[in-house]
Amino acid sequence: MSDTDQSEATQIQDSLPEYRLPVIRVPARPSDQNPGGSIFGGWIMSYVDIAGSIPALERVRGPVVTRAVDSFEFKKPVFVGDLVSCYAEIVYEGRTSMKVRVEVYAERLSKGETITVKVTEAVLTYVAIDEYRRPRQIPKK
Ligand SMILES: CC(C)(COP(=O)(O)OP(=O)(O)OC[C@H]1O[C@@H](n2cnc3c(N)ncnc32)[C@H](O)[C@@H]1OP(=O)(O)O)[C@@H](O)C(=O)NCCC(=O)NCCS
Question: N or C end of the chain: smaller count of CB under 10 Å?
Answer without folding.
Answer: C
